[in-house]
Amino acid sequence: MKIAIYPGSFDPVTNGHLDIIQRASKMFDKLIVVVLINPLKSYSFSIPERVRLLHEVTGSVKNIEIDSFDGLLAEYFNERPEIDVIVKGLRATSDFEYEFQMAHTNKDLNPRAETVFIPASSNTTFISSSMVKQVAMFGGDLTKYVPAEIHEQIRDKLTAEFAAKRLAAQNRNN
Ligand code: COA
């Protein structure tokens, strides 16, 4: 039994993440998708919201588990000795340096933590969660970027966030 973990922020999950999830789930007996925190980022969706969105879009993937963890990936890996490998997607060479650093840091923190990279499918290489959030804030069409079943939730959340930001900026200027 080979078990992989796919870690990420998933703020929110996009068609790009889903591409990696679907392909990795065919390569391993089980795929554990884990929502983690990059403390240098600010997030729009809470961890339970990100986990719920992941559940909603991965219903057809049978060998998947979705989890979250407020700590180091290397620590999570340590707590789950059944996990064999970390899977990450690579969209472009620009991802490589950051992912390479993370892979080495994780291995340094936990020598058992090996990372394998899966190249993103060509139609998803330009997608990122920030790009999706920006389109959603202006009420744009998310069809090509995010699974249909979560469009409304993403648009509602982000248009509200953007409206609140605009109001706060207006109040500051008055
Ligand atoms: N398709 C589309 N988009 C993709 C993608 C793909 N295949 N792969 C990555 N992305 C996007 C994400 O949407 C995200 O976009 P954004 O920057 O606009 O939000 C970006 O690429 C980076 O995604 P991700 O791989 O989730 O990196 P991250 O920096 O947001 O989070 C963690 C990385 C959460 C896995 C990492 O910080 C972590 O392990 N945190 C726990 C603490 C820890 O162990 N730190 C690491 C020590 S090195």
Describe what you observe in this structure.
With 174 residues, the protein is α/β, with parallel strands linked by helices. The protein has helices at residues 15-27, 47-57, 73-79, 93-109, 129-137, 151-173; strands at 3-8, 30-35, 64-68, 85-90, 114-119. It has a five-stranded parallel beta sheet with strand order 3-2-1-4-5, with helices on both faces. Helix 1 (15-27) links the parallel strand 1 (3-8) and strand 2 (30-35). Helix 5 (129-137) packs across helix 6. The longest helix has 23 residues, at 151-173. Bound molecules: coenzyme A. Coenzyme A (COA) binds at residues 7-9, 11, 14, 16-17, 20, 36-38, 41, 72-74, 89, 91, 102, 105-106, 120, 124, 127-130.
Q: What structural class results from the helix and strand content?
A: alpha/beta
Dominant shape: globular
- Please estimate the helix content: 40-55%
Largest pleated sheet: 5 strands, parallel
Distance between the termini: 62 Å
Helical run tally: 6
Low-confidence stretches: none
Number of strands: 5
β-strand amount: 15-25%
Question: Which strand order do you get reading across the main beta sheet?
Answer: 3-2-1-4-5
Helix-strand pattern, N to C? EHEHEHEHEHH
Mean pLDDT: 96
The small-molecule ligands in this entry are: coenzyme A
- Quaternary state of this entry equals single chain
How many whole angstroms does the radius of gyration measure? 17 Å
